[in-house]
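1st attempt posting a full record on here, be nice pls
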Amino acid sequence: MSDVFTEGLCSTLLADVGARAMHAPIKPLRAGWLLRGRALTVSVPAGDNLAIHAALAAARPGDVLVVDAQGYADRAVMGGIMCAQAAAAGLSGVVVDGAMRDAAELRAGALPVFAAALSPAGPTKTGGGSVGRPIRCGGVAVNPGDWVLGDDDGLVVFSPDESEALIAAALAKGRAEALRMAAIARGELRPVWLDEALARATLDIAPAR
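the predicted structure (as tokens):
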């Protein structure tokens, strides 16, 4: 499976050019983690993880396990043992819109784990849910095989069909931002676009003192 990601891509650049950004509560358990790969999608009823076990049994190296756990925060649907299995299977990371546990153990590991909450309570294994079907996770649609990128700012998702255009636009924006940073370093503190934007806007700005 080819990797579309190149040096310099990050969640902010991709979100700015149209990638779907998951909602803010889903964050990495440890600062500095970079997650990227193709989505293996799972949905589970609140507090249940049987479908996640089924997904792990079918996972392929490079997959990112993306779990719609209904945003439920009072029972963890994964922890240290399941994440150890995910790492051993070669997964690129885990995303859970819900709760995880064994946080200290997970932070000490190498597998990037993103979650909306932490809870010491364990899951049920009653069943329900789905594996490999379209889901909503973090407030956005995620289809099987979508590209997922996560870093300290959060997570973005985009389809393979969008990837070429989105990545080109994100890299171009990154180059533009680098030029702006260089201008600031030279002392050019007023963006060139500001006057035109202010002329179009309705703002109440007090006179300069």
